[in-house]
Design brief:
mainly beta; Jelly Rolls; 9 strands; 0% helix; globular; Ppnp; Pyrimidine/purine nucleoside phosphorylase; transferase
């Protein structure tokens, strides 16, 4: 999906890691929530409350998912899933554009 229809966008930015990761929240009529953001190169660890699907629109990163000892390379056009109530690590190698979907 290249665009979203009939949404509400929260103007206030979500800013993490001294501005190296930013996003905007998109709310859908059916209650679905996504964030659209940019990650600068660096190493990050995120925690989840809900299950997440991270869709990488452009860029290049390595992810270490919960319960795994192996880093996986993800590039633009690929995605990965993170279980609820867990944490995951990223090594972002280049400017990365992403869309995160939060699932119940």
């Amino acid at each position: 999906m290249q665009q979203f229809e009939k949404v509400t966008i929260i103007k206030k930015a979500n800013v993490y890691f001294d501005g190296k990761v930013t996003s905007r929240t998109v709310l859908f009529e059916d209650g679905e929530k996504k964030t659209l953001g940019i990650m600068m190169p660096g190493e990050y660890e995120f925690g989840t409350g809900k299950k997440e699907i991270m869709e990488i629109m452009a860029g290049n990163l390595d992810v270490l998912l919960p319960g795994s000892n192996e880093w996986v390379t993800i590039t633009g056009g690929q995605s990965f899933e993170v279980p609820a109530n867990s944490s995951f690590k990223l090594v972002v190698k280049e400017l990365t554009d992403y869309c995160c979907s939060y699932l119940d």
